[in-house]
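Handout, tutorial session.
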Amino acid sequence: MEAIALRNVSKAFGSEESRVVALDSITFGIKEGEFFSIIGPSGCGKTTLLHIIGGFTTPSAGAATFRGIPITRAGPDRIVIFQEYGLFPWMTVSQNIEFGLKAKGLAKRERQQLVKRFIERVSLRGFEDRYPFQISGGMKQRVGIARALAPNPEVVLMDEPFGALDSLTRDVMQEEILRIWGETDRKTFVLITHSIDEAIFLSDHVLAMTSRPGRVKEIVRIDLPRPRDPRIRTSDPRFLEYKQHLSSLLRGEAQSAITI
């Protein structure tokens, strides 16, 4: 069953005289419980596409639906994790995670139990009372993930969540997100990323977009076993084949973008 469906979605910005087409006739579906990644050259409309799914902006044409219902606004069923962490600097780790639970109207005892559970889940025990400036970038991202998942959303949207991290921490966070995804009944995850390796390692399907205006160039099914061993990044020939194929697709699009 499709959780999210886009049918002939286009998005343009500006007036008629200065109109910029960001997305053109995008059609695809994302199944319930799927880990779905979107990659493409800079400026191809990836974040715009995520914002349409999240309900932060509406298409100029076509339709986006969640479980058959048109997406017209943001809602607690679809949570976004941003690259910038988005933590409140005046709140502790626990308070940041608790924020969405308060907005949901949960009783204090239930909030405390959920905060404790997610502190354990993202391996931050002992840092509950620290403020964001007192923890590392990787820890901040884990707080952001815990805060997003604690209110139990149906869909988790991620916009380059690991882009600001160093290579080693990024690899560790990819493994963490897969572990957390597996422990939360495999909610539907949608990831925007520039990293082909990251998209392959995490995903069930990878959508490769064209240069602007963004269109669907190809959707690649990632047929690798789960749970995924981190060593497949360098040892599994299928991983390397996927990487070569997707790199070839995007290289052509990047060259097109440069010549526009």
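The second record follows below. Compare its token runs with those of the first.
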Amino acid sequence: MSHFVNIVTQIKDMKALINALERMGFKDKIECYEKPANLYGYQNDIRKDKAHVILRRKYVGSSSNDIGFERGPNGLFVAHISEFDQGTGQYAGREGKYGKTWQDRLYTYYGVEKAKLEFEKQGYKLGKTYFEDVDDQERPRLRVKI
């Protein structure tokens, strides 16, 4: 049985996190809770780990565990991703679908989504005063008209 690894992130904004996860293919597959809910393992066994934002294993992969993001006492989210899904611990040597590459992409999208929310608060409009495109390495970026 693979156990969850707790990864302290720099993610604070739940809306930006949800938007980033949607961009990564989880639109309409994200569960959000005010009080954290339990995560489930690959055998559909209830785990002690809990999260406020959850991707259930049926959307993550049939042999996978749930993936969760729990808001910590400092306001930062802690990601709960199993060793199996990351390809770490006893599963090292196999590329886990939700390992470093996936996590880096999530953080990139989170940064873009957080910036877009901040732009909107300041009255900027997507497509009018700021635009999103990709750089030569296929990373998303924002451009603001001044």
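Points raised in discussion: Strands lie at 4-8, 30-40, 46-55, 67-71, 77-82, 130-134, 140-144.
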